[in-house]
Amino acid sequence: MHSKFRTFAGQLLIAANIFILFLLFFENKLVIPAWLQTIGRMHPLILHFPIVILLLAMLLEYFSFRPEYAKNQFYRNFLHNLLLAGSLLAAVTVIMGLFLSREEGYEGEILNYHKWTGAGIFFFASFIYFIRSSTWYKAPVAKAGSLLTVAALVVTGHYGAALTHGMNFIWEPIEARKEAASIAPEQAVVFTHVVQPILEQKCTSCHNADKMKGQLSLTDAQSLLKGGKSGKVLVPGNPEISLLLERIHMPTEEKKHMPPSGKPQLTPQETAILHLWIKDQAKFDKKLASYPSGDSLQILAAAYLKPASRETEFDFPSADEAEITALNSDYRTIVPLAKNSPALAVNIYNRATYTSKQLNELDGIRKQVIALNLNKMPVNDADLEIIGKFENLQKLNLNFTEISAGGLKALTGLKNLSSLAISGTKIKYSELSALLPAFKNLKSVSVWNTPLSEPEIVQLQKANGSMAIIGGFKDDGKNMLRLNPPQMKNSSPVFAGTMALQLKHPINGVEIRYTMDGSEPDSVKSPLANDKLLLAKSENIKAKAFKNGWYGSETVQFEVYKCSFQPDSVHLLAPLNRVHQATGAKTFFDQKLGVIGANNPAWANNWAGVKDNDMVLVSEFKKPALISSVGIHYMIEEDTGIFPPEIVEVWGGKDAESMKLLSKFKTEMPAKGDKPSLKTMEGKFKPQTVSCLKIVAKPLNKIPEWHKSKGNKALLLVDEMFLN
């Protein structure tokens, strides 16, 4: 490396040390803008470069004092440059990591361990670079420093992997199966030994105490019931409206699909277990032995608890790779079941382009195909004759196809077929009950959304005890469903003059009735909501949806707020909390309300917060305004230390020098165990004409004795103020 460039790089390394020290020291005050968040997310992209370079540099450093290397100028120059490059790349990685750590979803001890060990490696590598030319730097010091750096790299990498994949990612499959194998079915608790292991394997790498994506943890029963930023993830007894299953069933290309594309997905059996467990009221202490013999959940859970056998060995050779490549297309994918496995899985897409030719073309690899997905394809009985030649087929998805029971007879010769999905077809109970005994090794059949009634599905299960008959919810018209609550169409619940309240419902023919006196809406006496409902002041509205043949929805409350005056200019006289900056002084009059959850990134720009100082806002009006009340909208989440303002003061006058106290009021403090809520407190006073208005909201100075953070200062979060 050229000496001038090396000198510059060394100076850059010193600057990087100072900058990283600054970031670490003032970390709690960092506010990362969107463009820096993008840079921070490149942390996983480049971290492998400094790891490899520093490992290589430390290996060379360990042997650098051997006579044959100590006198080799090329060796010493190469090592010096390598260590400098590794240290600089480590600096970039640490800075990106610090930016990334400020995003929602990263917290806890593992993050701290990863952060400080990573920063420590950078500082230590820089230290070695600068002192390795000293006279006292000898072989023992070099070897000790090399070994220490390598050990730190391993530890840091471990904590980084734990953040991404979970703390026990490496040994989890073995330990999970060991635990399952050690539990006798009669002793197993469905949630503890079946449901929770599924969540641990597929969900908790992103939803745990150290990495709470979406403010959601799925590590225990309490966290499951609490939910996350999008609300509750399960509704006991109602899998159809449980967010957990909704996200699982989304197409993999959807952004909200869980687990994310590229991560291990839930198997149909695992999804069915979660569905049936939630349908059974999501009980956390119910034992498997308490379920009746033949119950779908009992069968699937018992199968899950069986010790895992060694990886399946196939007695057929691998297909020609060139042939597989030629058969892959935009509408047909052929992939190995596992690495180095001869078994293949075939998926065929696009109903409009499907023909029997796509099956016939697979004749050369039919021995290797063990899984075939034809979901929603126009497959007919003639196609089943072709599929019947796939002698090693184990899993077949024929959901929502045009097959008949007669056509399925062509599949009875498939001795390895263990999973058959025929949901959404027109096959009847009499046909299926006569056909199933012919399938000797079939273990599960999916039949939801078919003409089969629920009693018929139960009867099929009894007749085929070792086979899981997987049904689903079926509306036979005898059981009324509950309507979901109405929604508000208005772009904002804050208005200046008057507002026509617009309520909507996704189901046609629904009546929405409301009250504004605090009473519960009913289907007869309460007024109907329509666009003629004109509001002239702040209101608390209760609404409910009704329709013949349905249960009325749950009551939903809409709070609307009138703010008659918009200041011409606003500014803060004291700083906001580093995490809750929102849009500064503009936050309080932008007609955007936040939601419960202080760290909800979707609404991060709606909450302005203070903790160590008062919230002091000054508003100015070019044209004097006659004001008689000031309202402040705030969040209460006592469990996380978010309390209402202790005192609110309102000052006003013709200018900043002549303001006088117009109102001073206290807010009601929450009690222990109160649920999180959003509230408004209003201070009223004799009408005053003002050109300058100052609002001072003082955070609670000492959290009550009953709280886990007793004696500390509380966080105050405000998203809007109302001037009338």
UniProtKB/TrEMBL annotation:
Residues 182-282 form the Cytochrome c domain. GO terms for molecular function: electron transfer activity; heme binding; metal ion binding. Gene3D superfamilies: Ribonuclease Inhibitor. Keywords: Heme, Iron, Membrane, Metal-binding, Transmembrane, Transmembrane helix. It comes from the Bacteria. It holds the Pfam family Fn3_assoc. The keyword Membrane applies. The chain crosses the membrane at residues 7-26, 46-65, 77-101, 113-132, 144-161. InterPro entries: Cyt_c-like_dom, Cyt_c-like_dom_sf, Cyt_c_Planctomycete-type, DUF2231_TM, Fn3_assoc_repeat, LRR_dom_sf. This is Cytochrome C. It comes from Dyadobacter sediminis.
